[in-house]
Write a structure and sequence with these properties.
Elements: H1 3-19, H2 23-27, H3 37-46, H4 52-60, H5 63-78, H6 94-114, H7 118-131, H8 133-153, H9 156-167, E1 173-176, E2 192-196, E3 201-205, E4 213-216, E5 225-234, E6 237-247, E7 260-264, E8 277-281, E9 284-287, E10 297-298, E11 304-305, H10 317-322, H11 324-345, E12 347-348, E13 353-354, H12 359-395, H13 397-432, H14 444-451, H15 461-480, H16 495-499, H17 515-540, H18 545-551, H19 553-576, H20 585-602, H21 604-609, H22 615-633, H23 636-641, H24 647-650, H25 661-672, H26 680-690
Parallel strand pairs: 1-5, 2-5
Antiparallel strand pairs: 2-3, 3-9, 4-8, 5-6, 7-8, 10-11, 12-13
Amino acid sequence: MDPNSTTAVARLHAVQNHLSIQPCFQRHAIHNDQPTGPADLARERANSSFKVEDMTEVILRGKENVEALSLAYQMIQRDPDLRMREGHHYDLTRAEDREQTMRQIARTIELKKQIKDPRLRQALFMAMAFYSESYSMRMYVHDMLFKQALMLFGTSEQQDKWMDDIENWRVIGCFAMTELGHSSNLRGLETTSTFDRAANEFVIHSPTLTSTKWWIGMSGETATHTVAICQTVVDGENHGINWFIVPLRDPKTGRLLPGVTCGDIGHKSSRQGLDNGWIQFTSVRIPRENMLMKWASMSPEGEFTPSPNPILSYATLIPERFTILSGSQVVLGQTLTIAIRYGAVRRQGNHDEQILDYQTHYTSLMPGLSFIYMLNIVDRELFEKWDEVAEYAQTDAGAFMREIPDQHGVSAGFKGALAWYATDVLESCRRACGGHAYSSYNSIAGLIGDYGVVTTGGGDNVVLMQQSARYLITALKWAQEGQEVVGSVSYLNDYKKILSNPKTSFQDPRDLLSHEFVIDALTWACAKKATDLAAILAEAGKSNFDQAWNTNQTELVRLADVHAWRYFLILYQRGIDREKHTSVYGMLRKMGQLMSTFALRKHLDLFLEEGYFDGTHAKHIRQLFLDQCKDLRQDAVPLVDAWVIPDFVIKAPIGKYDGNIYPAYFGTVNAAQKSFEPPAYWHKYAAPLLNAPRPSDEKKGCKC
């Protein structure tokens, strides 16, 4: 046959294929418009390889907590002061959002006093945190940042004075750390607290525009007090940063107090219900006793005693950074639920496939799905340790001092590495929902906006990763000098033994499923990178240290990232070992194995550069990752169902539990349509364009 003829026939077949009626069109033909979503989700749930209820009990730490959370969601849905009264959340103005958020806070504080069951009180806060990110952040600023500062830095006498008012919201607090010209560099903060011996008072002052406290949550409209971090000046000498309680507003009138100027930051990417603001102090006088004096102190005689270690000034940031794990669960839990349910309902392609069955689709979502389970398990491990350390702050100062460096290193590395990956997961979810994710009514855009600040707030991730790297380099130096290092860096005690094996023992692809094998590989990578970078920095010497650090900055950040993922996997395995008695241990282990492969794949370039793995090893790792994602896809819908997030909380019609997404989506959009009449601007601007007279000599034109 003539080759040209063959080509022509092939082209005709291709055209015919494009023009033929595809299954997806047949399914949605006008006389056959039966939704497949409900049946698809029902089948996904029926094929689950684990019991969803058992997984929910693991996530929420017991059946009693599951029941309490269910009741809490019911309370929100029925209480007009807690729920969205009318319309859609994403149609609220900033003023409406703030009023609603404060109304919700007032109501939950009222209910907190009435509810006797501590489980239900905690469940109500958790449910509201999922329901409203602005509510969550306002509560977080007061309860975590403001109150935690008093607990960590205040004496027992100061806690006795303030704590009852804080617990009962007779004082509304905020946390004034960052400034217009300074954020992560706390030593460069400009706000001053100057001691006046004659008056036995501190004078709080903002000397420059850049010293304005900036991005301070709840300072814009609400807070009556702040804990402000200031440079402490005594007799003309700067003694570094310390914390001070400064009144801002009259609790009865809400008016600003003399010398205090607070304003609102204005419109933000998201979290409009949180009144982020700015503060300027003009010679504001506070009693000496308003300096938080557990560690540093000022005596009545005017004698200043510094804290035993400057790192203590940053201690309150440690639990703040650990809360990244719980906060990420709130946002990712909803986003992944939406994306995975939509992926199981949406059908597209020559054979009308569920889009979740496409390899590019499930490989983009399954690691994130495993990640939120890891966040949940590791969150418990971290806070059990932190609660122990925080207790030392009240009972054993020496033990507190010994533990703080490692806690600081872990919190910095986790905040950076995990928050960065969480943003990747959010973007994967947005892409997985196509154009529908661009609609605010499907929540993902808003959730991405809510989370956007996380990579900067509480410490810029790049800076924190360098803090983690600096801790690793210092810990290695201690180990090289014969000192024993503990906690997350304890492996550095054996750095010589670790580095004595420059190549992997990997022979069988099944080795990759071993937790110990993966940890050994990541341990080698950390030790190798740390020793190489430490040698470079040591060779540079003190005079060229900063230049050498900057020249190797990206590699230092990579070191911190590998170290963070290594320790994250260790804590996850430690956490799921507690669940060996449950029916879902196998599934928890499967997700851990996927994320172990993910961590190796993420840092594959490092292993290949150093010759630890070769090309064959890399192929095995990549293939295993694809296989694990495909395997987990079969349980994707039940795994998001286990988070038991109700539809009214998710607020996204394309993520509805029953799968009947299109009528719900259209109904939501249609309900927001106020009128089908032309808008005022149409008559003002469009009509004159459309009805402008034509030149007399023009013969052609639209006659429609």
